[in-house]
Structures are given as structure tokens and as C-alpha cells.
Amino acid sequence: MKKLIKKDILEEYVLVASMIKWIFLAAIIGLVVGMATSGFIKIVSLACSVTHKYKYYYLIMPLAFFLSSLIVIKLAPDAKGHGTEKAIEAVNKKAGKMDIKVVPVKLLSTILTIMFGGSVGMEGPATQIGAGISSQIGKILKLNESGRKRIVVCGIASGFVGVFGAPVGAAIFSAEVLYVGQFAYLALFPSLVASFVSFFVGRALKTKPLISYFIDMKQFSTEIMFLRMVCFGLIIGIIAMIFIRIVNFIEEIFKKVNIYTPIKGIIGGIVLILIVILTGTTDYLGIGEEVIEKTVMGQGVNKLAFFWKTLTTSITLGSGGSGGILTPMLYVGATLGSTWAHIVNGSQTFYSAVGMVSFMATCANTPIAGIVMCMELFGSEVGMYAAIVCVISYLIVGHKSIYPTQILIKPKTMSLSINTECEIRTSDEKFIIKNNVLKKIIRK
């Protein structure tokens, strides 16, 4: 008995000491990244307020994409892409190491892209900026590999919450997005601390989150809604799969074009200008928070808005524009939910809210984060229904991800034999159906 008591005391001592250490480290990350993210958001907002005064501001897109791509290539190649996947890669492949030059380069290239109409979001750059700052702090403090990885995850959470204002969801997202089939429990506590500190810093600096809107669920029927949620989950999963394939396909097309990389930005910008002329609107350019807010407020949007946003985002990122892909995914999910509401004669507000969060969670393979974020942004009852959609769509999308550097730990079904312990983009190299019944159905 004495040995057990001694063991318990020693264990509690170590746990408390570790907790105090990580409260301190995570609070520093939350404070520094929170201020940096707030500054980034305010600069983007100011830049857009200047350029968007002019009716044809988007005509500068080709030049903006060219400069964005050129800056990244010349100064910090790691700043290429939509941000979050590079932060995931830093944890999974580089032992938490990231070049600090990524921070200013990503900030500048993203501002150039967004202010002239590039169809991207701010969360990817915010998470990459957070990861870059936290990696540098870890280097200064001479943390070991495990410590550097955890502190970078704190940076991801701190940057993420600065844009979306959902601290618990941000912390869970940062611990869940690293792997498919595994949750980074060790990083959860410091991520929560960092996320909340960054959240309160944003509030103190009056940084406006993307959206927060309470939905009254009293008018909905539980029995009917459950069946509709199952169907909606199937649709979200299928559209998410198509979205991922389109983004990757267009990126591959631009990669195969054998010209100087920044010139691809000019081509992408011209294509987007043609889309504006074809559709007669700029609704599918930029961050798109106005359209997201319209759908959640129950106002009508184009029934094919989700398709056009998929196209403009894919072209922006594929041609060399810099920015995040998560906000465009919220846009696609919200407008898809609006279209589904018209089909089933349901509440546009409700389906847009569920659609935006569940689509993001599906593409990122983060169903738990999606459920929690929906509760934080729209209320617990909405989150309860969103849970059905998030889990079903997570399964339906299969072994695909908008973040190709995620590590696939376990397959989503035991009926498939698929590569594991590898980046999800390489999992298709081994794909074998193990279930005999399924084999017979497919053969027929």
C-alpha cells in the first residue's frame, strides 16, 4: 500500500509539473500568435476595404497572382499552398521545424491574393503563421522533438481560432487534423490553453470572427430531421469527395504546364476574370464571408454557388495564389446546404449552418472538431444534428483529404485493405476489398 501511495504522489507531482509547464508555454504561444493573427486579419480587412471600392478591382488579379507566386518562390518556398497542410507537414515530417521566413512571406502573398479577389480564406495562412511563430519559439527554448511538435500544434490552434472564434473546436481541430484514425491527445491540453488565450486576445483587440449565429431549433421535428440528416450526410460526403478531386485535378493541370511558375498566376487570374464575366457577379471571388452570412441568415443565393466557388478556389490555389482553403469549404458547405433546403423545403438557415461546418469537417477528416464547432457557433441542438451529418459524411468521403500530408493511421472500414502509417495521398497505392459479399456485388 505504501508503494502505491508513493507511486501516486510521484505521478501527480510529475503531471502537475508538466501541466504548469505547458500552461506557461501554451499561454505564450496563444498571446503571440493571437496578436499576430489579429494583426493579419485587420491588415487583410483594411486592404480589401481599399481595393473593393473600385468596381473592377478584380482585373488586377493576374498581376497579384504573379507577384504572390514570385514572392513565395524567391523568399520562402514552404509558404506555397493553402497553409494548413504545411503546418501538418511540419509536425508529421519535420519534427516541428518550420522556417520563420514563412510568416512574413505568407502574410504578404495572402494579402496580395485576397485584396484583388483570389478565392481563398485567411485560416490557412493564420495556422501556418501560428505554426511558424511557435516553431521559432520552440527553437529558442531548445525544446526536444516531442515538445516542438506539441508547441506547433498549439500554434495551429491559436491561428485557427483567430479566424473562426471557436476555441474548443480550434483546439480539437489542431489535435485531430494531424492524423486519420488517431487523435493527438498529448497536444489537446496545451492546444486548449493556447486557443483560449488567442481567442481572448482577439476579443481584446476587437477582431471579428467569421460567423456566430444562434439558431432556434423549436420548429424542427426530430423524427423527420434525423432521416433528412442521414441523406444530407450522404450528399455532403459525395460532394466533398468531388471537391477534393477537382482541387487536386486543377492543381495537377497547372503543374503540368511547362512555363515559369509565376506566369501560371497570370493565366489563373485571367480565367477567374472570365468566370466573373460569364456569371455576371463577383460573389465567387475573395473570402466570401458576405455570402456565407447571407445563407445562414436565410437569404437566397445561386443554386450552383457551391460549384462556382469550388472552381474559383481550385484555380486560385492551383495557379499560385496564396491563402487558405477552409473558408472556401465553409462557403461551399453553406451554399450546398441552402440548395438542399430548397429541395426538401426545409430551413435554409439550419441546413446552411450544418452544411458549412460538416463540409469543412468532411474534407479535413475532422468530424469531432466539426461537431464541437457547430455547437460553439450555432448552439448545442444544431450541433446534435450536425453530429449525424459529420460522421456519415466522414465515412462517405473515404480515404481522401484536402490536406494530403495527413497521416492515415487506420482505415475507415475493416472491409478494405489500404496503405496505413503513410501520408493519405499515397494510401491509394494499395486498395484491396476484403469483404467477400462486397466482392461478389462488384463483380456482378
How would you characterize the overall build of this protein?
- It is a single chain.
- The protein is an all-alpha fold.
- Helices cover 68% and strands 3% of the residues.
- It has helices at 2-51, 61-75, 84-92, 102-115, 123-140, 145-164, 167-176, 188-204, 222-256, 261-279, 289-296, 305-319, 326-344, 348-364, 367-378, 380-396, 436-443; strands spanning 179-180, 407-408, 416-418, 422-423, 431-433.
- The protein has a three-stranded mixed beta sheet with strand order 1-2-4, with no helix packed on it. Strands 3-5 form a two-stranded antiparallel sheet.
- α1 packs parallel to α8 (188-204), α3 runs antiparallel to α6 and α10 runs antiparallel to α12 (305-319).
- The radius of gyration is 22 Å and the shape is globular.
- The termini are far apart.
Give a short overview.
This protein is mostly helical.
